From TrEMBL:
Descriptive protein name: Uncharacterized protein
Keywords, sorted A to Z: Membrane, Transmembrane, Transmembrane helix
Organism encoding this protein: Salmonella enterica I
Positions of transmembrane segments: 12-30
């Protein structure tokens, strides 16, 4: 996994974007209750 990140930095950016989207949806669902 680390070698993949070192070879392709865009995977890190993509994973961060996906993680932030997931967190936003989870927080939005919690606030919506």
């Amino acid at each position: 996994m680390l070698s993949l990140v070192y070879e392709n930095p865009w995977t890190t950016v993509f994973l961060l974007i996906v993680a932030s989207c997931c967190l936003n949806s989870i927080i939005g669902a919690l606030r919506g209750q």
